[in-house]
Amino acid sequence: MESSARILSPTQFPSLFSLPNLNRGNVFPVRPIKPRAFKPMRLHCSKMYVPGFGEASPESKAARNLHNFFTYVAVRIVTAQLESYNPEAYLELMEFLDRHSLNDGDKFLASLMRESSRHKALALRILEVRSAYCKNDFEWDNLKRLAFKMVSESNTRIMREYLTETSPSDTEK
User: Fold this and answer.
1) CATH assignment of 60-138?
2) Which helix (H) or strand (E) holds 109?
3) DSSP letter at 44?
4) Cα–Cα distance for residue pair 139/149, rounded to 1 Å
5) Where are the domains of the chain?
6) Which of 7, 72, 119, 140 places its Cα 20 to 30 Å from the Cα of 148?
7) How far is CA 28 from CA 24, 34, 67, 99, in A?
């Protein structure tokens, strides 16, 4: 995509730091300059500017949600494993899950580690599984493909529904 930005030579820059001409008589501007609120400068690039994500990019927020989702998946994997070979640890983990939310994965695991030494071992196992699942088993390409497909199908469905609602039907003629 061709960029609309052009490169200026140093002689074309406005003189930002030059002193006013003292011989002109009018040294100060006619009206006082009001301080403006800071507005971030938008860079010209081929990516969309997304307002409202000052503290983090949309990708960063999505990564945070995936991070918490990986914790959820790891807990599900570990509970399934424990259910078959260690019913006592399974019950302990299920009781802990009843008392603590999994919305924030790191907070959940930190609480689990501090509960008892047995819970600490469970937390370490969940940490291992979370890392292994993220690195080896999660299908990143499939995620991208599915996200594209969902957006495309959803956009088509919404536009089709709108057209159906707003277009006159054959029975109305």
Assistant:
1) 1.10.1200.210
2) helix 105-115
3) -
4) 15
5) 60-138
6) 72
7) 10, 14, 56, 68
Residue type, 43: L
Burial of 109 (0-12, 13-18, 19+ CB in 10 A): buried
Distance CA 100, CA 121 (A): 17
Is the whole model's pTM more than 0.85, yes or no?
A: no
Distance separating alpha carbons of residues 129 and 74, to the nearest angstrom:
5
pLDDT tens for the 173 residues of the chain, in order: 444 444 544 444 444 444 444 445 555 455 555 665 655 555 555 777 777 766 778 888 899 999 999 999 999 999 999 999 999 999 999 999 999 999 999 999 999 999 998 999 999 999 999 999 999 999 999 999 999 999 999 999 999 999 999 988 766 55
- 3 state SS of 2: coil
Helix (H) or strand (E) holding 68: helix 58-85
